[in-house]
Design a protein that fits this description.
The complex is a heterodimer of chains A (111) and B (113). With 111 residues, chain A is mainly beta. Chain A contains no helices and 11 strands. In chain A, the strands form 2 sheets. In chain A, strands 2, 4, 5, 9, 10 and 11 form a 6-stranded mixed sheet that branches. Chain A has a 5-stranded antiparallel sheet with strand order 1-3-8-7-6, with no helix packed on it. The radius of gyration of chain A is 13 Å and the shape is globular. Chain B is mainly beta and 113 residues long. In chain B, 0% of the residues lie in helices and 49% in strands. Chain B contains no helices and 11 strands. Classes of the chains: A mainly beta (111), B mainly beta (113).
Amino acid sequence: QKEVEQNSGPLSVPEGAIASLNCTYSDRGSQSFFWYRQYSGKSPELIMSIYSNGDKEDGRFTAQLNKASQYVSLLIRDSQPSDSATYLCAAGVGGYNKLIFGAGTRLAVHP
Amino acid sequence: GAGVSQSPRYKVAKRGQDVALRCDPISGHVSLFWYQQALGQGPEFLTYFQNEAQLDKSGLPSDRFFAERPEGSVSTLKIQRTQQEDSAVYLCASSLAQGEGYTFGSGTRLTVV
């Protein structure tokens, strides 16, 4: 059973702080990893993808991948109340990139 | 269109009724996926199309679930004899090429009463 595990939270951080979201995956064959943001009642929105070990930065977001530890993380710098949402980690499996999602971590950024 | 379009947005079905959910992917997107998302959970894979070919239907929960994409564009997910456990949000996603992240539609919230 291929799995992606995330802490359900809620993770509560003050405005302006760094939010750190983590995820582990079980399938060593996974080569692609994604972070989606999902606001309540809305569909998931892709915010980051990462394919190689190391860090990938895009604006206030940094994704980190460690394939040896089967660990993916997302850092959100200068957190804003508008970042409050559920963050879904996903690992791609198979040639056509079927995504296996974690259950999501709920982030709450308070003013 | 500019994004992935799904209809209806909400559907209430009586137990035992058949339902059909429509997905109109982004124009030119070869890959199309259907996912099911229960409350408080991440999306779970149902089925995958590459153009009109259904290459993976391993996630369909039972033979009551059927999906098609006859012309390689619009897709329909059909659920026969709906049960209460089918209540969920059904998400369609498409991508231009294999290996890329998906763009999700707004979903269809199905409630079986």
